[in-house]
Design a protein that fits this description.
By secondary structure, this protein is of the alpha+beta class. It is built from 7 helices and 15 strands. It binds zinc ion.
């Protein structure tokens, strides 16, 4: 009797308690949960003492009979529960209630679960991929095509591994890198390529069929095309995928110039400079990064430092076409 009395005198609607409204908004970080919208639902009011809210805890299945997506099998408690709530902006909330056919409960549940993932992924900003460069012991790639590796080659050439790992739970788009090593790159080999992504790896500068003779008496002939820098461009890197490329390099005549590129100096000479894009609030946002490389001239060994966000403030030297 009491239940009936309460319902008739107050409301027939199973409205959400304040606690549910607050938690569903906080879980959504106050962004509208409709993937095509994701508008922020909080903002400044023209009155400097007030904030404006444009969000609503919407019912996935209506609060009362006859309402959109009403489910008669739900109990009153289920209707008022967090599970039945989705955070939307006012216009998206109107939209889903006016066109029940286009927005059935399955669609709203899908939005909610996508939005949970979106927010737990730092609001959609993916982490920088793990990028490392290291010089390998010995050589795996024969410097001259399928020929065998001779002892002499080992002293002339160096093989370096570039490994890129996307450890995010989401795709990153249009990853491009400019790779500038202390030694000229002769050739490269793709060791690991994520399924479903395509990419291109080629010299940035004009290619030369050149001989690099000099004090080091390094002879590079027979179609080997040393390049100072390489460009790597991929369309997508799937979640938890790895891209592994080996580069074969040789010391060049004027490489001593490049050796002074110590990390202690103000400008950085050896590095991987790149960017990728990620979708956020309906746009693709670029994020630039810089991987500084250290070089030990005596052993001719490259090691990478931690990858960092690049805002252009750090001075880097862009080497031009060789020689
Ligand atoms: Zn919206």
């Amino acid at each position: 009797m009491l239940g009936g009395l309460v319902k008739t005198t107050m409301s027939d609607r199973d409205d959400f308690p304040e606690r549910v409204k607050r938690i569903v908004a906080q879980r959504a970080a106050y962004f509208c949960s409709r993937p095509e919208c994701r508008n922020l639902t909080l903002g400044p009011h023209s009155d400097p003492e007030k904030a404006l809210s444009n969000g609503v805890a919407a019912h996935i299945c209506a609060a009362s009979p006859g309402g959109p997506r009403f489910d008669p099998t739900q109990t009153e408690e289920e209707r008022r529960s967090l599970d039945n709530a989705i955070w939307l902006c006012h216009s998206c909330s109107d939209l889903v209630d006016k066109d029940e056919q286009a927005f059935p409960k399955e669609v709203l549940r899908e939005w909610k679960s996508l939005h949970d993932k979106f927010i737990s992924d730092s609001g959609g900003v993916p982490q920088l991929p793990d990028i490392t460069v290291r010089t390998l012991e010995g050589l795996v790639m024969p410097p001259r095509g399928p020929a065998t590796i001779r002892g002499k080659d080992i002293s002339l050439f160096r093989e370096h591994e570039l490994l890129i790992v996307n450890h995010n739970s989401r795709l990153i788009y249009w990853l491009t890198c400019r790779i500038q090593f202390p030694e000229s790159i002769i050739t490269h080999r793709i060791v690991e390529n994520p399924a479903g992504s395509s990419f291109d790896c080629k010299p940035d500068s004009m290619q030369l069929v050149a001989s690099a003779t000099g004090s080091g008496s390094v002879s590079v002939t027979g179609g080997l095309r040393p390049a100072l820098n390489y460009i790597l461009a991929s369309d997508t890197l799937p979640p938890r995928s790895r891209l592994n490329i080996h580069f074969l390099s040789t010391a060049s005549e004027n490489s001593s110039d490049y050796y002074m590129s110590g990390l202690g100096s103000e400008s950085l000479m050896n590095y991987v400079l790149g960017q990728f894009q990620y979708p956020l609030l309906g746009e693709y946002i670029p994020r630039r990064f810089l991987l500084p490389l250290n070089f030990e001239p005596e052993r001719r060994v490259i090691t990478s430092l931690p990858c960092e966000d690049y805002d252009g403030s750090r001075s880097i030297i862009h080497r031009e076409t060789w020689p």
